[in-house]
Amino acid sequence: MSTLVHSVRLVDDGHVTDDAWILFEDGRVGARGQGGSHPDASAIVDGEGGCLTPGFVDIHGHGGGGASYDDGPGAIREARALHRAHGTTRAVVSLVTATLDELAERAAMVAEVAEQDDTVLGSHLEGPFLDPGHKGAHTASLLRAPDAASVARLLEAGRGTIRQVTLAPELPGALDAVRRLTGEGVVVAVGHTDADADAARRAFDAGASVLTHAFNAMRGIHHRAPGPVVAALRDPRVTLELIADGVHIDLEVVATAFTAAPDRIALVTDAMAAAGSDDGHYRLGGLEVTVSDGVARLDDGTIAGSTLTQDAALRRVVGAGVDLGLAVAALTRVPARAIGRPELGRLDVGAIADAVLLDGELGVRRVWVAGEAV
């Protein structure tokens, strides 16, 4: 089956092309062009001047639609369906801190899901190798240093599907863990950390290449102590995750980060189960979370993930003055590249036909995964 989508603003690879059309054939982009002359197809969609973008890629999220990724294949399916409806065609499944046994079991579970569903890009272990002083919504008693045996066990359980591990680089053994993990093809992210700028730079030199939800659960920027955010902004090897919900970070700061590192911002959700669901009481890992007015917090007031979807992040960022092309890249090409999947998040000829059609207010109208409407 082939699908032609015409009369759109094509937003891809940082560029906007007006009056564009694109042809999906056999799950890939078969052709694209501009103007009223275009090929025939078995299905034709009038974009009515809306924006067509690559499918969004979320490299950091914990659930949605009332379901948490930690809770098994059924929960992953439910949460992925919610985020897919909001444009996230492919995602890394983030797992919160648990016992080593539980994390190994969950990494193995995600490996099985990923083998059956190629829109699940693998797992992200956000813990247990985190600083207790910047634990966020992680259980302090389960945090530990990244000893070689623990790292090896998790790698074995994940069977090559662990895409990302967040760790605090100042912990004993952390730099050795960075080298071991990156040597196995795992992306290492600096996060939930008390690292100063020098410690962050050492981690980046050892191979870490992402800053987990920049500004959150780490030292802030001070004019005499720049911290890990400035170290990441100044290092062209590093991608910075941002949670653009207006709660985790002021949107003026988000816009400033785009100015400082325009091609290295990945807009993530860090969404927990309440994304796309009602306010109320939930669990994140082993912790009780209360969601009020769409904001998730622990009993002590600590922010506990978000209720964000990636289309909402796009609207907020563009509303803060960020260029549309840059904002879309931060949802597509940049996160895909950050986890070593540069073939995703783009709509050039031959690319996988994951796409999102947005209306004039950047609301989702249609979503395609490998050329199939979902």
From TrEMBL:
Recorded family membership: Belongs to the metallo-dependent hydrolases superfamily. NagA family.
Protein encoded by which gene: nagA
Domain Amidohydrolase-related: 52-374
E.C. number: 3.5.1.25
Record keywords, A-Z: Carbohydrate metabolism, Hydrolase, Metal-binding
Protein source organism: Microbacterium insulae
Keyword Metal-binding carried by entry: yes
Enzyme class: hydrolase
Protein name: N-acetylglucosamine-6-phosphate deacetylase
Top-level taxonomy: Bacteria, Bacillati, Actinomycetota, Actinomycetes, Micrococcales
Coiled-coil blocks: none
InterPro entries: Amidohydro-rel, GlcNAc_6-P_deAcase, Metal-dep_hydrolase_composite, Metal_Hydrolase
GO molecular function annotations of the record: N-acetylglucosamine-6-phosphate deacetylase activity
Pfam family of the protein (one): Amidohydro_1
